Amino acid sequence: MNINFLCELLIKIISMGTVMDEGSYLRETWNQLDAFIVFTSMLDMILAGVDIPAIKILRLLRTLRPLRVISHNVSMKLMVNALFGSIGSITNVSVVVVAVWSMFAIFAINVFAGKMFKCDIGTYTYNTKFECNSNGGSWIRSLQNFDDFFLAMLTLFNVA
Fold first, then answer.
1. Per-residue CA distances from 135 to 8, 44, 58, 124 (Å)
2. Which residues share a beta bridge with 118?
3. Residues 6+ away with beta carbon under 8 Å from 68
4. Is it the case that residue 63 has pLDDT exceeding 80?
5. What DSSP designation does 81 have?
């Protein structure tokens, strides 16, 4: 399989040129990724019999092989390029969301800190510590609570 990919790479390089011309093979980012995947696959195939721990890292690059599908599919290229192009906008929205959640987390800490407990038996049956303890249960802190900033943010994330 690697030999087929290498032959495809060589044919494209011969027909399009390597780097120098405007439409050369290695001028496009997707083709650079494709060439990198092919060369690492060939290097992995050549070093298959060698048992050096550092070479095992090279074998991890096998996970990049499915990216070859993206480089051959125009629609997927368009989607991935649009996704990478929108990273800046996604980051801006994330900053705004974290700022708003921070305000709500601080408010919730002031209002609900130390009040999010439940009974370990009959969670919705026993609503007070006295009822829970008198029926053999333990009054425990809920996993989602507002006792500190990190837990408040995590609870708001779970609610959202």
1. 74, 65, 60, 13
2. 140
3. 5, 34, 37
4. no
5. H
